[in-house]
Amino acid sequence: MQETKRVSTHDSLKAVSYKLFEVISDELDVNTAYVAQKGSKAMKVISSFNKDHFIVPEGFQVTYDGSHCRLIIQNDEGVMHTNNLGSFNLTKDMEVTEQLKVKGYLGVTLRDYYGNIFGTLCVMDKEEKDFTDKDIHFLKNMAEVLSYIIHLDNTIADIDLLSVPIIPIKKGLAILSLQGNINEERSQKILEDTLSYAAKNSSESFIIDLSQIVLLENRFPDVLRNLVLGLNIMGIKVMMTGLPPWLVKMQEVRDHLTDLQTEYVVDIESALNNIGYTLEK
Question: What residue stretches are annotated with the STAS domain (predicted)?
Answer without folding.
Answer: 163-281
